[in-house]
Amino acid sequence: MFGQIIETIVNFIGDMGYVGIFVMMFIESSFIPFPSEVVMIPAGYLAYRGDMNPVIATLVGVAGSLVGALLNYWLALQFGREFLIRFGKYFFFGESSMQKMEAYFTKHGEISTFVGRLIMGVRQYISLPAGLARMNLAKFCFYTSLGAGIWVIILVWIGYAIGATFGADFEITNIIHAFTSKDVTTQESEIKSWTRIAGYSLLVFVCVISVAYVLYWKYKKTKKD
């Protein structure tokens, strides 16, 4: 059922080209749970076929992610914590999720808006504690765009690799099916495997960045003392 809904949305908005990418990435980056894999991987595949420009698709994807994140930031800034908890439950975001996001932001500071964009289940909501904390808007936009950019580039590359591996006749619906169904073909399983490897690589990258960031600030603090 969920897979059919996603496929319908992708097919409908996909006809809009770059505008469709922007809209779907905006949705993915806001409250509504929507897998970015079914947006940017097909975009990369279409770039392989010559139907899209990979650079423009990437920039539009990042722009959509940033605007969606800014919506969450603005909602938190304008309406506060109680509003988010009250209405967040309608978008699978309860008080416990809010507490986790706040704890993550408090522990890691402003850079969490960068690191959080690379973690599944965190990227959609890390903008909320940033808004509540009234984080500097320029820094928020920079860190969010940087994190979203890395993830979008990886997904576009996977889509391009799918075209190079399976050919230009590979159906986009197979890419969507790979992430929305339990029963997948060998090719679809391989696509999921590539994305999983990319996800694990990002986790390692996030750990390295986090450790480096903590060590840097400890060194900076020690130097001041």
TrEMBL record:
<dbReference type="InterPro" id="IPR032816">
    <property type="entry name" value="VTT_dom"/>
</dbReference>
<feature type="transmembrane region" description="Helical">
    <location>
        <begin position="54"/>
        <end position="76"/>
    </location>
</feature>
<dbReference type="GO" id="GO:0005886">
    <property type="term" value="C:plasma membrane"/>
</dbReference>
<keyword id="KW-1133">Transmembrane helix</keyword>
<feature type="transmembrane region" description="Helical">
    <location>
        <begin position="12"/>
        <end position="34"/>
    </location>
</feature>
<dbReference type="Pfam" id="PF09335">
    <property type="entry name" value="VTT_dom"/>
</dbReference>
<keyword id="KW-0472">Membrane</keyword>
<dbReference type="InterPro" id="IPR051311">
    <property type="entry name" value="DedA_domain"/>
</dbReference>
<feature type="domain" description="VTT">
    <location>
        <begin position="34"/>
        <end position="160"/>
    </location>
</feature>
<feature type="transmembrane region" description="Helical">
    <location>
        <begin position="197"/>
        <end position="216"/>
    </location>
</feature>
<feature type="transmembrane region" description="Helical">
    <location>
        <begin position="140"/>
        <end position="162"/>
    </location>
</feature>
<keyword id="KW-0812">Transmembrane</keyword>
<keyword id="KW-1003">Cell membrane</keyword>
<protein>
    <submittedName>
        <fullName>DedA family protein</fullName>
    </submittedName>
</protein>
